UniProtKB/TrEMBL annotation:
SUPFAM superfamilies assigned to the protein according to its UniProt record, in alphabetical order: Zn-dependent exopeptidases (SSF53187)
Lineage, uppermost ranks: Bacteria, Pseudomonadati, Pseudomonadota, Alphaproteobacteria, Sphingomonadales
Keywords per UniProt: Aminopeptidase, Hydrolase, Manganese, Protease
Organism: Qipengyuania soli
Residue span(s) of domain Cytosol aminopeptidase: 308-315
InterPro entries: Leucine_aapep/pepB (IPR011356), Macro_dom-like (IPR043472), Peptidase_M17_C (IPR000819), Peptidase_M17_N_1 (IPR048816)
Family: Belongs to the peptidase M17 family.
Any one biological process term the GO annotation gives: proteolysis
Pfam families for the chain: Peptidase_M17, Peptidase_M17_N_1
Protein name listed in UniProt: Leucyl aminopeptidase family protein
CDD domains xrefs: Peptidase_M17 (cd00433)
A GO CC term assigned to this protein in UniProt: cytoplasm
Superkingdom, natural source: Bacteria
Length: 460
């Protein structure tokens, strides 16, 4: 999307095809305004104003479009998305109103992942006009960020390993004149021992590393963004079944979210001192893989007994969160495709959110509701901390009773966040199993827009 014609443009009175929005309640009165032939055309298409319905109505030598929505007076991000998916190439204008928040779905509906397979019938851009020129740049940036998450997650692990994530961070740093440092090899083992342990079994070309990008004035409040970058997760020696590995290219989805959010922060020049940390590994199997029962050192100095090598994401995040905490940030936000338990509880559409402070959760939930990207808060129960106890180390990385898996993983991460620091953790799926208007099947962003709108409110 970043390299194509902008899909939303200022309305300067140029020629455009009209789009009418109606709902079932108002359809009977609205359709009376049409000619008999136009009513017949809609009837033939079985259009009655239902949600996401699209009608094409002949009008002289051309046509106009009709879209079914829940409420034409209050649009969501996705109200125009079906239209953007199915209308022919051209320029369009909503009549009797502005697109408003639907500018987002108009763009994301036209996303195509074509790195490996070109569309059989490519369609040119559908451009939407708006008189709200002040919305355009922000809406384009937000849609590009979502598309970036989709691109990174959709790319298979062979082409999106730790080195590719490093290249993505380099590209981001160059675009915004940020500073990037990358730690790997012996230095990684010394400074980030859990990141090294998880990734050391991978092939040399997919060797573990951690990227640390810094941007902004040092006098501004410190904002840290951390993303889990497990490029592929075999489960390690506690190996996943084949079905469990099928989508594990998406296990770097947290890194994709973090990189995209950092790009939005820098692009909008928020008044923060940004620290982006992306630990990147492949959880592979070889003779030097870390084992169940091993005790790992950590950057913080705690020791961690490995109860399960498939609970590796929290290990690499632990070292990264400790490093982020050393900057005394005002806020840390982390993203991770962390637990199946969060998906069992909430399904794919709602990212699990855990925070230390109620007000931070309230800000993120409110921002998510307003941008059609709502997280759902799960607790960090003090009573469950004992489930991470170990007989021989400071804590275990995996509890055995099977209860509250997402919250217990959050409690593990909490051990590595500095005392008193405001912290929000998103356990996100990063994958859409079934397509919806504006949201094709495949990699997707969940929680990204909630976090972004919250940060704009807090720091903009």
């Amino acid at each position: 999307m970043a390299d194509k014609t902008p899909l939303i443009q200022p309305d300067k009175g140029q020629e455009a095809t009209a789009i009418h929005l109606v709902n079932r309640d108002g359809f009977a009165d609205w359709v009376k305004k049409l000619s008999a032939g136009q009513r017949a055309a809609l009837a033939a298409q079985k259009f009655d104003g239902g949600g996401y319905q699209v009608g094409i109505v002949p009008d002289g030598d051309g046509f106009f479009a009709v879209g079914g929505v829940a409420n034409p007076e209050s649009l969501s991000s996705w109200c125009l998305a079906k239209l953007a998916e199915v209308l022919p190439e051209g320029t369009y204008r909503r009549v009797d109103g502005e697109p408003g928040p639907a500018l987002h779905g108009w763009q994301t509906a036209q996303y195509v992942f074509d790195r490996y397979k070109k569309p059989e019938r490519p369609v040119g851009p559908r451009v939407l006009l708006t008189k709200e020129a002040g919305r355009i740049d922000a809406a384009i940036a937000e849609a590009k960020a979502v598309s970036l998450v989709r691109d990174l997650v959709n790319t298979p692990a062979e082409d999106m390993g730790p080195e590719a994530l490093e290249a993505q961070c380099e590209k981001l740093a160059k675009a915004h004149s940020a500073k990037l440092s990358v730690t790997k090899g012996d230095a990684l083992e010394r400074e980030y021992p859990m990141v090294h342990a998880v990734g050391r079994a991978a092939a040399r070309t997919h060797a573990p590393r951690i990227m640390h990008l810094t941007w902004g004035k040092e006098v501004d409040p410190v904002l840290a963004i951390v993303g889990k970058g497990v490029a592929f997760d075999s489960g390690g020696l506690d190996i996943k079944p084949a079905s469990g590995m099928l989508l594990m290219k998406k296990d770097m989805g947290g890194a994709a979210h973090a990189i995209a959010l950092a790009g939005l922060v820098m692009g909008a020049k928020l008044k923060v001192r940004l620290h982006l940390l992306v630990p990147a590994v492949e959880n592979a199997i070889s003779g030097n893989a870390f084992r169940p029962g091993d005790v790992l050192k950590t950057r913080k100095g705690l020791t961690v007994e490995i109860g399960n090598t498939d609970a590796e994401g929290r290990l690499i995040l632990g070292d990264a969160l400790q490093r982020a905490s050393e900057e005394k940030p005002e806020l840390i936000i982390d993203f991770a495709t962390l637990t199946g338990a969060a998906r069992v509880a909430l399904g794919p559409d709602y990212p699990a959110l855990m925070t230390r402070r109620d007000e931070t959760a309230e800000e993120l939930i409110a921002a998510g509701k307003a941008s059609d990207d709502q997280p759902w808060r799960l607790p960090l129960p003090e009573a469950y901390r004992e489930w991470l106890s170990s007989d021989i180390a400071d804590l275990n990385n995996s509890h055995t009773n099977g209860f509250a898996g997402a919250s217990v993983a959050g409690l593990f991460l909490d051990k590595f966040v500095g005392e008193g620091i405001d912290w929000a953790h998103f356990d996100t799926f990063a994958w859409r199993p079934v397509a919806k208007p504006g949201r094709p099947k495949g990699g997707d962003a969940y929680g990204l827009r909630a976090a972004w709108h919250m940060l704009q409110t807090r720091y903009g």
